[in-house]
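Troubleshooting log. The previous run stalled partway through. Resubmitting the same two chains, unchanged.
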Amino acid sequence: MTTLISPALEIPRPARSVVVARRTFAGVLRGEWIKLLSLRSTWWTLGSSVAVMTLIALASAQSLGAMADDVAAAGGLAQLHGATIVSGGAQIGVVAIAVLGALLITGEYSTGMIRSTLAAVPTRLPVLVAKAIALVALTTGITAVSLTLSYLVTRPMLSRHGLVPAFGDVQTWQVFGGTAFFLVAAALFALGVGTIVRSTAAAVTVALTVLLLLPGLLQLIRLDWVQTLVSYLPLPAAGSFLNLGDAASLGGSQLSPGAGLLVIAAYAVVPLVVGGLVLRRRDA
Amino acid sequence: MIEAHQLTKRYGDKLAVDHVDFTIAPGSVTGFLGPNGAGKSTTMRMIVGLDRPTSGTVTVNGKPYAQHRSPLGEVGALLDAKAVHSGRSARSHLRTMAATHGISGKRVDDVIDMTGLAGVAGKRVGGFSLGMGQRLGIASAMLGDPQTLILDEPVNGLDPEGVQWVRQLVRLLASEGRTVFLSSHLMSEMAQTADQLLVIGRGRIIAAGPVQEVIDSVIGATVRVRSPRLGELADLLAGDGVTLTPGDDGAIDLQGITPAQIGDTAAAHGIPLHELSSHKASLEEAYMNLTQDAVEYRSDVTAALLKGANR
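Second attempt completed without errors. Output:
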C-alpha cells in the first residue's frame, strides 16, 4: 500500500458560497426602495410637501370669503372649480418634490454611495430605472395624501360657497389626476437633471428655474416667440390640463390639454434618457 | 482569478495605468504595492467596472465584471471606505446592497457580527470614524460571500487590533481558496500579509512575484565587514560578481559573496575581523529602490525644513 495523502500539497478548492446571491431587477428595485425610506431627508421632503400643499389649499379656500365680498371678483368665483382650490398647493409643493427627485441621485454622488451602487449593479441602467419607478410610486402616494388632506381641511369653506368638488364629476378627476401627473413629471425631471449634472445644488437650481421661475421672468418680455416659448414651459403647459388659476393668468395655456400632457411627459422623459446615456458611459 | 491584459487608463494627457499585464491567482494574498498616485486605485476601479479602460481588458473569473449575473457573489470590493451615504445607518446600507442580490437579512446580520459592527449598526454612517467606515466597507465586500476580494488600503485608519484582524481575515479567506487582492502604500504591512507582490509605479508594473523573490531580485543579501586591515582584505575579496561599497564609518558592504567565504579568506591570510554581519534587505529598502524613480508626488521635506530654519 503506497497511498500517499498529503493535504498540505493539495491546492485549496474554491470555497463554495453558502450565500444565495443573484442580481435581479426586482432586487434592484427593492434596494432603491429601502434606500429612499432609510433616509431622513426623504421623510423631511415628503412631510414638508404634504404640509405646504395642504396649507396653501387651506389658505386659498379661506380667501374665498373675501372674494365673494369683493364685487369685482365675485363673478370669477362662479367659474371656479373646487378641485383647483384643493390642488392649488401643487405649484409650491413641486419644490419639495423636485428636491426629493434630485437628491435621489445627487445624494449618492455627494456621499460616494454611487460607487457601492454601481459596483453592485455594474450594468447601471437598472439603477436609474428602479430609482424612477420608486420615485413615481412615492410621488403618486404623497400627492394622494396631500389631496386627501387638502380636501378634508378645505371642505367646510368650499361647501359654504357650493364649491365642494363632486366625486362624480370628470373635471374633479382631471384636475386631481393632472396634479399627480405634473408632480410625478417634475420629480422625474429633477432625477434626470440630477443624473446629468451629479451635483445637488446644480440639479435643484436647474429644476426649480425651469419649473417655477422662468414663466414669471419671461412673462415680462412681450415678444411673440418668447410668449410661445413660455407656453411650453412646465407650469403653463400643465395649466392647459390643470386649469390652475395662476398658471392660466400667466399668459401661457395656449396649448390644448392633450399637447400639454405630451409636453409635460417630455420634461420627464428626455432628461432621464440623456441621464441614462451618460450614466452608462461615464466613470463613476 | 483576476487577469489584466494590456490594461490602460488615460486621464487627459496623463497615463494613470500604462499597458499593464497581470494575473492574480486564487488561494493566496496578493499585495498591490505602490506610492500614492501610482495607479493602484484606478486599476482596482477598472476591475469592478467603475472606470472604463481606455484600452485593454480585465476579467474576473474569466468574464468582465459587468457580465456576471451575481456581481457581489463574484467580487467583494472595498474601494473607498466612504462609498456609503452618510445619512443612512450601517445596517440600512448593507440591506440596500443585499436587496439588489436577494441576499438574506441573516447574512446582513452575519457580516455585521463578523466585522464587529453590532454595537453601531443602527447609527448613521456620517458619524463613523475612519476605522468603523473601513469595517463597514469590508462588511459590504463580504455580503455576497465572494470568491474574489479586492481591498483598497483596507488597514487605513484601523487601530492595531483592527490591523491584526484584517491580516487574519485575509489569510483565512485565501486559505479557503479565494482570491485576495489588496493594495497598500505601506511596505511593512505587505511583508506581514501578502504571499505575492505586484509593485506598481507611474502606472507600470515594476516587479511581480513571491514577496521574498521580489525583494531579493532588487537587493541581494549584503555582508558588512570591518577590519583593521580592510584595504588588504578588500583586494583579496574583489572578484567576479562581487560588489564593494565603502560604508560611512570605515566598514565595507559586500554583495555577491557569503559571510563564510569572507571569513575563510580572512582566516587563510591571518587578517583579523572586527565585524562580519549578514544583512538581509527589508521590504522597505526593496520598495524604496524599486520606486525611487516612480514616485509621483515627491516633496523635498529636508529642503523645506532648512528654508524654514534659515528664515
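Takeaways: Chain A has one domain: 26-281. Confidence is low (pLDDT under 50) at residues 1-14, 244-252 of chain A.
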